[in-house]
Design goal:
Layout (H helix, E strand, L loop, with lengths): L2 E7 L5 H19 L5 H6 L1 E7 L14 E8 L5 H18 L10 E8 L5 E2 L2 E2 L2 H12 L1
Parallel strand pairs: 1-2, 3-4
Antiparallel strand pairs: 1-3, 5-6
Helix pairs in contact: 1-3
Length: about 140
């Protein structure tokens, strides 16, 4: 049950680009989690984009747009290799959507939040990572 949230200044992305990026980021997260590409798992991968008002999200140095990507996953869902791949791909996707090159990569921060077992609930129940993993393996086969 992954969730990915992008925070950026308003006006950086057009509505069309923003919509496409939401689907892309959710799919990227599923890929790096190793989840199957099925309707069930795609429905569980949420992406939220929050735009801040002009001047509300800047650095002490300049007014260039900054991007914060918060990724929430069950603890143990991402190995170090998968985390690295996720960070690289998400950074590239955000840069591309904003029309920026790799030289602006330091303006994209990706924060991975691992939700401890027993602290994630859906449909009125605690969701266990082992259950999701078993379900994913069953849908792959």
């Amino acid at each position: 049950m992954p969730m990915i949230q992008l925070t950026l200044p308003s006006g950086v992305l057009s509505a069309e680009v923003r919509s496409g990026l939401q689907k892309t980021l959710a799919a990227t997260l599923l890929h790096w989690e190793g989840a199957p590409d099925t309707a069930f798992f795609r429905a569980l991968a949420w992406c939220r984009i929050d735009e801040t008002p002009e001047g509300a999200f800047v650095s002490a140095e300049d007014d260039l747009p900054r991007f914060r990507v918060d990724v929430t996953v069950p603890e143990g869902a991402l190995s170090d290799r998968r985390k690295q791949g996720l960070v690289e791909q998400v950074t590239a996707e955000v840069l591309a959507a904003a029309g920026l090159d790799q030289g602006s990569a330091l303006r994209v921060w990706v924060l991975i939040h691992e939700q401890p077992e027993g602290t994630w609930g859906a449909a009125g129940n605690i969701v266990r990572f082992a259950e999701l993993k078993a379900l994913a393996q069953g849908q792959r086969g």
